[in-house]
């Protein structure tokens, strides 16, 4: 991680769970973190915890392009631009597709696909302009690779995460074509104990991962030597077959 000492990282969905743990891990390695999230009170608490010279919270609705663009402009103006982007913000609706309002479809796609794409575009344009190196980490999901193994309703979530898998490939192709020195890593966890799913798993006997497990993997990927690019990291709870990830959930319904 020494090569990133004093550099800037943008982390979305930073107010809790995986995003918060990634922010903490980056700051421990002397990376300045700009955290994007909707909940201003959480951003303020994290700023106090990590230090105002190490963490900069920006209130940002990932479904609003103007918020995202404003945040990236601020980073460019005040901090000279970022070298690390972690697309972590996500939305999950545990409803059947056939019962879900159209507005919820859009919210899922806007948060999970459009927002990280906008962030990647702004990040790469900044990298190109500054002729520097960078790393994009997209927090994906097992749902973006093995939807057939998930036996509970997740609405548009799996479809959106399959799009993230394709997004990573497209970004990598374009980066190579543009001769940019930027890595792209997809991290695909199984069930993680976060606020997004806490009500769902509260009364279930099911193995889960913790947010710090995913954060540790992100820090590992970011910290690899320049010659190494981690394409994909798949993380599942120990003892859970990847092809039957949620069979225990199915039996509880």
Give an account of the 3D structure.
The chain has 253 residues and is α/β, with parallel strands linked by helices. It contains 8 helices and 7 strands. It has helices at 17-28, 40-50, 65-79, 102-130, 157-177, 198-201, 211-222, 247-252, and strands at residues 8-12, 32-37, 55-59, 84-87, 134-139, 182-189, 232-235. Strands 3-2-1-4-5-6-7 form a 7-stranded parallel sheet, with helices on both faces. The longest helix is centred in the middle third of the chain and has 29 residues, at 102-130. Residues 245-253 have low confidence and may be disordered.
- What is the mean predicted local confidence, pLDDT? 92
Structural class: alpha/beta
User: How far apart lie the N and C ends?
Assistant: 44 Å
Shape: globular
Across the major sheet, the strand order is 3-2-1-4-5-6-7
What share of the residues lie within helices?
Answer: 40-55%
Radius of gyration: 18 Å
Determine the strand fraction and express it as a percent band: 15-25%
List the total number of helices: 8
Sketch the topology as an H/E string, one letter per element.
Answer: EHEHEHEHEHEHHEH
Which short descriptors sum up this protein?
seven-stranded parallel sheet; 43% helix; globular; alpha/beta; 253 residues
